[in-house]
Amino acid sequence: MKRIPFLIMLLLAISFTNAQNTAIGFNEKLTYTASYNMSGVLNDIAQVTMETSPVKTSKAILLRLKCTAVTYSKWDDFFKIRDLYESYVNPKTLTPYLYSRDINEGGYYKYMKYTFSHKSGTVKSLMKKKNDYQENKTVNINSGTKDIVSTIYNLRLIDFNRMQVGARKSFTIIFDRKETKGQVTYLGKETINTAIGKKECYKLAVGSSDKVLQGSNSNLVWLTADANKILVYGKFKIPVGNGELKIKSATGLKS
Amino acid sequence: MRQTLTIFAVIASVFTIIFSVLPISNLAIFPGIAALLLAGGAFYLSKKSGEVKKLIPFSFILTTLALLLTFYKAIFTTTEVEDTQALETKEIQFEEAAIEELESLDLEIDESELKELEDIEIDASEIEEIEIDASEIESINIDDAEIESLEINENDIIETEIESSDLENLEIN
């Protein structure tokens, strides 16, 4: 159960080279329902919200990408999740500068902050846990490595119209101070019913080098085949089961 | 056989009750159906032998009540999030801390990218809170050449309403 919010995030994580942002606006809000399969029955576990907002500093206006995962009230007495992931990125290229992850899952607490230095290829990390435990560490990263939140949004910068069915793109994300490799495979277009209407979508399969996401085509995402390319549906398979992510609402879209 | 079916029916009905009160109430359907079938079988065999134990109707009633609760929760209960104040407070704190930290970073942003951020929506309340230092206004330099090159459309002048009281107060140095 603890892995579900992270895995939802990893399922959506893709990174790319310096594509320009034409899909993500400054005040966008996407709301999802995360469900988990228990004995063949899907149960709605949590609400996942992805929001963007402008952040003004004296040097520049950045884009704040925020993802929260909150269990529904009926689950709070059994396993309460209050997760906050955020990344401060360049609004044009979605290159991250600062990332933080604050998770509170069933009493387990962890805070992680990354400060990126792309010039030197390093990330300064700060980890905090309960009982005031803190740990600082500098990690070397490869060019193009991003945090999980910015890679999720980078997915929407890919020009899928130029991709052939079966084409793959690889990605590297930094999570828990380690780089993880993965890839996304374009499986073609598919029209599906969603809470925001019937949508023609790009269907993608996501895989990772570690065994977090299982199977070759078992972890799937559907992005709308329009200028926004928002994620409307996702399926994931993990060592402890499988689940789904369904869109509930979408506001503030750029196009 | 009758005894076995009765025991399993009671066990299944207990599981149905347990699942129906938990958040996973929709799983109660499986033991519920099993309990009904087992109790039904036990009841049939009991009728044949002429001896119906009270456990069998008890199991039926328990299962029925549990399934009614399950259906009620499925139809009338809405899934929603609550108790998010702490998370919202944390979001604001993190944003403030992040802005402080970003100020000290070398953001490596190309200035040409900043010019394209023209369609950002800025909340009016944020503008109202902006403090302007009067000394900054006094120190503004206006280039005479800019004034000379200023073009005024005649139509704008004609449409402008000038009150005579304004002219009386006008000072020309």
Automatic annotation (TrEMBL), chain A:
InterPro entries referenced in this protein's UniProt entry, alphabetically: DUF3108
Signal peptide: 1-19
Keywords: Signal
Domain of life where this protein originates: Bacteria
Natural source organism: Aestuariibaculum sediminum
Stored Pfam families: DUF3108
Organism taxonomic ancestry: Bacteria, Pseudomonadati, Bacteroidota, Flavobacteriia, Flavobacteriales
Protein name: DUF3108 domain-containing protein
UniProtKB/TrEMBL annotation, chain B:
Key words, A-Z: Membrane, Transmembrane, Transmembrane helix
Species in which this protein is naturally found: Aestuariibaculum sediminum
Name the record gives this protein: Uncharacterized protein
Transmembrane regions: 28-46, 55-75
The organism's taxonomic lineage, starting at the top: Bacteria, Pseudomonadati, Bacteroidota, Flavobacteriia, Flavobacteriales
